[in-house]
Task: inverse folding
């Protein structure tokens, strides 16, 4: 009597376990299928596909003998030599664990042969310029971002972290490196997170998006494009997700749409106890000790960046 009861109990438990497990497997595969949007048509994907473009200048071997802790991916116009020089002379100057690369396209309004020669000369000198054959315009920044991700995934797959950052940003590398040492190594992206973004439907806006291009009336959470940091595995994943996301001319929202496909939530970076946003997207008057507590500050001309860094790099430790 007692024995049959035990036996029934065992059978019951095994059956329940099998049931729960298969329900779990079924549900997770179903939800994966429903979450993934349809792939883009060949025509739509061609616009952002890395196969559409080729490198005019490349640095394919920069990561061959090293695995940088942090790679700065800096989008710049081909003519912005002064901005590149300021970045090299400040936060982008090669530290032991970091690497800085500039991504550029073709000048708008045609390629000046002389300007191209200068760029090639600069590239020979510094070996940090990657030029791709698309027109380097504000509207094409999304293409540039997807190609930067693809570049990192292909040529520097063993880096730990990367930061997409504009050349007019002040980056407090000391604060940044310190924070990254305790951060997740995978599936991680942080910056100034925008959760309530909506498309602008006014055609005169710089950020105009037609309903045809983007029918939804809100954006998923995304990190502001001025500067954001991610674990390097995200480069291949974002590049993969771009097969499912139609090209829109807002690169940071575009990355947010890729994150939604991937099910990765961007993380807000703040300091305690005030919950101060560490990725300051406004521009602030230079102040050594205020800057020492932040990660980025927006809106620096090359000369201002050099000047502020000159003071900061020597004095930030005494705040
Ligand atoms: C973007 O780049 C492509 C490829 O070079 C070019 O055909 C197109 O005109 C560019 N778009 C804009 C808005 O500059």
Result:
């Amino acid at each position: 009597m007692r024995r049959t009861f035990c036996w029934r109990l065992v059978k019951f438990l095994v059956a329940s376990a099998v049931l729960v497990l298969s329900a779990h497997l079924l549900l997770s595969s179903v939800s994966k299928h429903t979450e993934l949007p349809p792939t883009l048509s060949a025509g739509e994907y061609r616009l952002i596909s890395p196969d559409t473009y080729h490198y005019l200048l490349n640095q394919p071997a920069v990561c061959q003998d090293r695995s940088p802790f942090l790679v700065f991916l800096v989008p710049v116009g081909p003519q912005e030599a002064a901005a590149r020089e300021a970045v090299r002379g400040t936060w982008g100057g090669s530290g032991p664990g970091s690497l800085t690369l500039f991504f550029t396209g073709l000048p708008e309004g045609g390629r000046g042969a002389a300007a191209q020669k200068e760029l090639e000369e600069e590239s020979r000198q510094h070996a940090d310029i990657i030029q791709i054959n698309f027109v380097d315009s504000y509207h094409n920044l999304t293409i540039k971002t997807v190609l930067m991700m693809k570049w990192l995934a292909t040529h520097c797959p063993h880096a730990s972290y990367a930061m997409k950052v504009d050349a007019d940003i002040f980056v407090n590398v000391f604060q940044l490196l310190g924070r990254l040492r305790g951060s997740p190594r995978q599936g991680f992206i942080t910056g100034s997170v925008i959760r309530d973004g909506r498309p602008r439907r006014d055609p005169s806006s710089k950020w105009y998006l037609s309903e045809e291009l983007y029918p939804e009336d809100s954006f998923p959470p995304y990190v502001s494009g001025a500067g954001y940091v991610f674990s390097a595995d995200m480069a291949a994943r974002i590049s993969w997700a771009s097969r499912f996301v139609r090209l829109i001319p807002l690169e940071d929202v575009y990355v947010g749409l890729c994150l939604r496909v991937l099910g990765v939530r961007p993380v807000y970076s703040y300091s305690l106890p005030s919950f101060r946003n560490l990725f300051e997207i406004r521009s602030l008057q230079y102040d050594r000790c205020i800057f020492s507590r932040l990660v980025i500050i927006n809106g620096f001309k090359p000369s201002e960046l050099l000047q502020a860094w000159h003071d900061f790099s020597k004095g930030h430790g005494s705040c």
The CA atoms of residues 119 and 125 lie 10 Å apart.
